[in-house]
């Protein structure tokens, strides 16, 4: 799942610093994991990966064209007070990722 999330970050056009924040890793740790694969992933890390993949899945359902979903992440959104989903997620807390995922799940008609 880590490799899939790293590829997703590429589609979203994230910097290593942003990616590290979303995964709650230090920048050096993220770059080391990105280059060679993750080491041991704790419960919080697994929950972050799961939420990020859930966000990706929901975007694929909401938008027929994948590129639109990739762009949506950085677009201002009224649901987040004019901030983008990425801005919300960069708060760095697991609950920030969960907030975006819940919003998208509701938009697609899922749970």
TrEMBL record:
| Record-linked InterPro entries | Xre-like_HTH (IPR046847), Xre/MbcA/ParS-like_toxin-bd (IPR024467)
Q: Where is the Antitoxin Xre/MbcA/ParS-like toxin-binding domain?
A: 58-110
Q: Where is the Antitoxin Xre-like helix-turn-helix domain?
A: 2-54
Q: Name one Pfam family in it.
A: Xre_MbcA_ParS_C
Q: What is this protein called?
A: MbcA/ParS/Xre antitoxin family protein
Q: Which organism is it from?
A: Stakelama saccharophila
